[in-house]
Amino acid sequence: MDIRAIDLSATAGRSRLHGAAAGAKLASFALALTAIVVQHNVLVVAAVGLGIAALAVASRLPSRMVFGLAAYPGIFAAVFAFAAAPDPLTGSLFVAKAVGAALCAVVLVCTTPYPQVFAPVQRIVPEVVGDAMLMTYRSLFILAEKLDRLRVAVRLRSGLGRRHPLLAARATAAALGGLVLYALDLSQREYDIMRLRGYEGRLRITIPPSREPAFDAALVLGAAAVLAVAVWFRLAGAGLTPYSWLPATLGLLALFAAVSWRVTRR
Fold first, then answer.
1. Could you report the per-residue pLDDT of 115-173, keeping only the tens digit for each?
2. Left, alpha or beta for 177 (phi > 0: left; psi -120 to 50: alpha)?
3. Which of 75, 157, 251, 253 could form a disulfide with 47 if both were Cys (CB 3.0 to 4.6 A apart)?
């Protein structure tokens, strides 16, 4: 997972979803995730996942990164389903729920800068925890750049690794040890700088206003409608099971329309 690519997607995107208010996207994420959790029909869960995938495609998110990250939990869910699921249908439900929930989270972080995602959480957790998470996110980019340089240095000093695997392993271990020490020194220096600049226990985050409030309302209402349909199918039980192909078909049509629109605009 390249955190720099995720941050670039969140900050440089120009779609309507990127410009939506962070609160609206968090509320929509919570509603869609609840719809996935409460539903036991694999076709309805797949319909929610297809709708989120259509939103990701329409927002011009990098498809390989988004769907690749969402597939990771599906792999572990497939292993769990193979070991614990009583039948293939239940196993498919496990995988669909894992991929759908992961896709919700990936679309959220790829369209919303991390400080805006974390701002509502910062008001709940203790001040030290909130500030530490914000500064940790910033430090990850510094450490990622440092790690890239160390990786190049290891390749140059170990004789291309394949011919000297032991030498390469030794150089890699030494580089990682140096990276840990650098991280500790970096955290201390950042704290000292913040104290000199007047840090008193709280980092303030300013959330920019929404570009289109109407789109925010539509986004939340759409997610609420998805949750209502999921609850309806859950409460109705076997009565609506023969019609569960309808939401899946609508989700598939939405994804097809999003792909066609993206190809046409390109």
1. 888 777 777 777 677 777 777 777 777 777 777 777 777 777 655 555 666 766 777 77
2. alpha
3. 251
186/206 Cα distance (integer angstroms): 25
d(CA 121, CA 128): 13
- 3-state SS track over 166-222: HHHHHHHHHHHHHHHHHHHHHHHHHHHHHHHCCCCCCCCCCCCCCCCHHHHHHHHHH
Closest CA to 102 of 63, 74, 62: 74
Among 178, 158, 181, smallest CA distance to 170 is for 158
Strand, coil or helix: what is 87? Answer: coil
Is 46 buried (19+), middle (13-18) or exposed (0-12) by CB count in 10 A?
buried
CB atoms within 10 A of CB 233: 24
How far is the C-alpha of 180 from the C-alpha of 166, rounded, in Å?
Answer: 21
pLDDT digits (tens, 9 = 90+) for 34-74: 999 998 899 999 999 999 999 999 999 988 999 998 988 98
Query: Between 4 and 65, where is the model more confident?
Result: 65
Contact in structure between 245 and 43 (CB atoms under 8 Å): yes
